[in-house]
Amino acid sequence: MTSKIFFLTLILILNFNLSFAQDLPKPNEYLEQGRVTAVLSEKHDKELEDVFMSDQIVQTLKVEILTGVLQNKEFKIENYLTSNPAFDINVKKGDRVVLEMDNPEDDKNINITSKDNSPLMLIILGVFALLLMLVAGYKGMKSLLSTGFTICLISFLLVPLLLTGSPPIATTLGIALLSIIFNMFILGGINIKSICASLGTILSLLLAGILSSAIINLASLNGISSQEGLILWDQYPQLNFRGILASGMIIGALGAVMDTGMSIANCINGVRKSRDDYGFKELFYSGINVGKDIIGPMANTLIFAYLGSSMPLLLLSFDIPFIKFINFSSVLTEILAALVGSIAIILCVPITAMISAYLINKLSTIKNP
């Protein structure tokens, strides 16, 4: 039953995505997968070295195209190495690569745009899925389904909607609502604790959305603090980048807030089953006590995740005055995102505890007057 619901919902999302995709600009580049079958030569380009004052190496490669209409054909191409590790793609025989071309049927102007790590990613994903199901069993399978559903929502619904100009915060909260309801009911079943957890999580994210929007405006952030943001601005200058930044903060907090909400609701539901004499007050404080143990690890998870992704910035801070460092747009964005997510987790505890204590106590009173 669970899988049927999942696939039916996924089909609906894909159908919605087709209509949104019609309004998006068509790609002006064609990408195919390939493999380097030989490195024919590596030579220094003296003229370029005199201009740029650094090593400039030209690799002459033989590449086999693995996909598309030119599949199984081999071509000789040049790959330039400029001593810039951010842009150089140093390949060797046997490496899989992503090839960019102007026309899928034209063998001219073929360039390597990146290494192809999709096989490795699929292997790691398979190991993750296998371990999750081995350790968690049926619940692990449901967790995979719920995670896949959320990824599909973001990829096939949220992204096209944002690119076509939908209000970022409202759209993100709507997508989060769908994700929360699906995840809670898949993982916890259709029952009172899932309803309580959903309500608590939704309200917490709503407050996080309001808070993130206010903070972004107060801090005068423009939402363009990274290379990816600049590329997006160049292609879609009409987008609301402040709203997209707030959207990212909400999505970043979604998983941790859902975990917190479900843990609180599950605890209060279990306490009420074991203690018929507990009323609203006792149930509420039971949820708060459990929440105190959850807040620290969950907030740390968010903060450490953001710190881990910002390690180069942290290393850069060693030689930069602290006041200057924390006011870099990219640094400030990461700090505020971690804090907004942590605040959402903290707010989720009393909100979910209050909702769960009231509804679970009310339902138990009706069943056992």
Q: What does it look like?
A:
The chain has helices at residues 2-21, 46-52, 118-136, 138-163, 168-188, 192-218, 227-235, 241-274, 280-309, 311-316, 322-325, 329-367; strands spanning 30-44, 57-65, 74-81, 96-101, 111-115. The protein is an alpha+beta fold. The protein has two domains: 30-119; 165-367, Up-down Bundle (Multidrug efflux transporter AcrB transmembrane fold), CATH 1.20.1640. A five-stranded antiparallel beta sheet has the order 3-2-1-4-5, with no helix packed on it. A hairpin with an 8-residue loop joins β2 and β3. It is elongated, with a radius of gyration of 25 Å.
Could you write a compact summary of the structure shown?
This protein has twelve helices and five strands. The chain has helices at 2-21, 46-52, 118-136, 138-163, 168-188, 192-218, 227-235, 241-274, 280-309, 311-316, 322-325, 329-367, and strands at 30-44, 57-65, 74-81, 96-101, 111-115. α8 runs parallel beside α12.
Topology:
Elements (H helix, E strand, L loop, with lengths): L1 H20 L8 E15 L1 H7 L4 E9 L8 E8 L14 E6 L9 E5 L2 H19 L1 H26 L4 H21 L3 H27 L8 H9 L5 H34 L5 H30 L1 H6 L5 H4 L3 H39 L2
Antiparallel strand pairs: 1-2, 1-4, 2-3, 4-5
